[in-house]
Amino acid sequence: MFRKAAVTTVSNGNYLQGQTNGRLPAMDSGQPAQEGKVVLKKKVTLLRGISIIIGTIIGAGIFISPKGILKNTGSVGMSLTVWTVCGILSLFGALCYAELGTCIKKSGGHYTYILEAFGPLPAFVRVWVELLIIRPAATAVISLAFGRYILEPFFMQCEIPELAIKLITAVGITLVMVLNSTSVSWSARIQIFLTFCKLVAILIIIVPGVIQLIKGETQHFKNAFAGNDASVMGLPLAFYSGMYAYSGWFYLNFVTEEVENPEKNIPLAICISMIIVTVGYVLTNVAYFTTISAGELLLSKAVAVTFAERLMGSFSLAVPVFVALSCFGSMNGGIFAVSRMFFVASREGHLPEILSMIHVRKHTPLPAVIVLHPLTMIMLFNGDLYSLLNFLSFARWLFIGLVVAGLIYLRYKRPDMPRPFKVPLFIPALFSFTCLFMVALSLYSDPVNTGIGFAITLTGVPAYYLFIVWDKKPKWFRKLLDRVTLTLQILLEVVPSEEDQKS
Questions:
Q1: Among the four residues 292, 304, 370, 491, which has the most C-beta atoms within 10 Å?
Q2: What spatial distance separates the first Cα and last Cα of the chain, rounded to whole Å?
Q3: Phi first, then psi: what are they for 241, rounded to 5°?
Q4: In this structure, how many other beta carbons lie within 10 angstroms of the beta carbon of residue 484?
Q5: pLDDT digit string, tens, across residues 447-472
Q6: Buried b (16+ CB within 10 A) or exposed e, 455-483
C-alpha cells in the first residue's frame, strides 16, 4: 500500500527523495501534454494567500451561533475580552508558523514541520489521523452547513428534509473537488471571490452596528462585566471555543511550495489575515450587542438572522446565502490546502505513491485531492461526525503544540538554519503552553471522548511499522500495488513531479 519511505533526514529544508519510476506515454492531443515541467507551480500570490487564510478561518459560526464564549463567560464585557485575547494568541501561533514556513520551504504544514523536528513516526501518525478521520469528518461537517443554508430560502415555512441536505451537500463536496482537481488558478480566484463575500457579509453586520452605537444604543454594554459569574471551568471552556473559532491560520503553510516569494508573502499574508479576522470578529460581536441582549443571543438559533430581521427587514433573507457562500469558501480552502499535506506525505513515502503525482496538463495534485471524496461521502451518509470530531479535537492542539515546540527545538538543534522571519522566543513558548493547556482541558472536561480520540490516534503507530518500516512484504503484493499504481496513472493521466525525478 505504501512505498518504502525515503530518507527522512532533512538538510536546510530539502528532503532527500527516493527514486520514483513510471511515466505515462505521450498523449495524442492538439496541444502539448505539458507546458514546461510537470510540477506544482507558484501561483499563490499575496492576495490569494490572504484569501486562503481568511476564507478557511471564517465559516458559519460567527453568523449562526457565536455564543460558546458568552455562555461560558457570563457577561458581555468578558466575552468581548476573550474574543480579543484569543485573536492575539492565534496571531502568535500564526507568527510561529510564519517563521517555520520561511525557513522550511516545503509544503505540508504540520506534517512537514513534525517530520523536520521529530522524525517520521510522529509525522506519519499526524497524517494518518488527518487522512482517515479528521479531514473527512471536518469537511462533511462544514459541507452540511453549506447544504442546509443553501436550501434555507426554499424552505422558509417548514423543516428542510435531511436527505435533501445531504444530497446538496454531496453535490457541493463534489463540485469543490472537481474545481481543485481542474485548476489551481480558478480555485484561487473563486477563493478570493468567496472571501470577499464573507467580508461583505461581516461589514453588513458591522456597519449597522456602528450606526446603532452612534445613535446611542449602548444599553447592553452598561455594566458589561456584570452578569452570571463564570464557573471554574467556564473561562477555560470559553477560551477553548474562542481558539477553535480562529483555527485555520495554518493553512497557507500547507502550500508553501506554491507561494510566490514565500519569505515575504507568508508572514505578510498571515499578519494581514489575522488582524482582519480578529477585528472583524470583535466588531461583529459588538454589533450584535447593540441590538440583541446577551440572553436573546444565547436563545437565538441564527444570531445574524435575528440581527438582520430587527435592523434590515426582508434583507435578512440574504443571510443564509452569505452563510452558504462562507461555508463553501471554507470547504474550498480546506481541500486546496490539505491535499498538499497528502501530496508531500506521499512524496516522503508515508502514503501511497499515486498521491504524489501531478496531472500532466492541469498541473494539479489530482489523486491527493480526490482521495478525500469517498472518505468524506462515507462520513456524510454513515458516520457520527460530531462524535468523531469530539474524539479528535484534542489531537489538533496536541500536534500544533508539538509543531511550535519543534520551532524552539530547531532553534537549538540547528541554530545556523536560515531564518528570514524570526519571532521572539517568548511567542512560541507562550503558544506551545496554550496548546498544552487546550489538551489538558480536553482531558479534564471530557475524559471519555478524549481517551477514545487518543486511542484512535495511537492506531497510527502499528500502521507505521506495518506499512512503512516492514519492507519484506510478499512479492505478489508489491507487484499488485505496482500494477494498481500504473493503472491509476493511466486513468488519471498523472505522473511523478519532475522535481522528484531529479532528486
A1: 304
A2: 23
A3: -60, -40
A4: 13
A5: 887 888 888 889 999 999 998 998 88
A6: ebbeebeebbeebbeeeeeeeeeeeebee
